[in-house]
Amino acid sequence: MDLTRPALVLGAAAVLAVTGCGSDSAATDAGSSERLRVTAAFYPLQWASERVGGDHVVVRGLTKPGAEPHDLELTPKAVAELAASDVVVYLEGFQPAVDEAVDTQAKDAAFDVSPSADLTLAATEEGGDHAGETSGKDPHFWLDPVRLTGVATAIGERLAAADPENATDYRAAAAALGKDLGALHDEFAAGLEQCRSDELVTGHAAFGYLADRYGLGQEGITGVSPDAEPNAATLRELTEHVRDAGVTTVYAETLVSPALAETIARETGAHVAVLDPLEGITEESAGADYLEVMRANLSALREGQQCT
Ligand SMILES: [Zn+2]
Question: What confidence tier does 256 reach under pLDDT thresholds 50, 70, 90?
Answer without folding.
Answer: confident
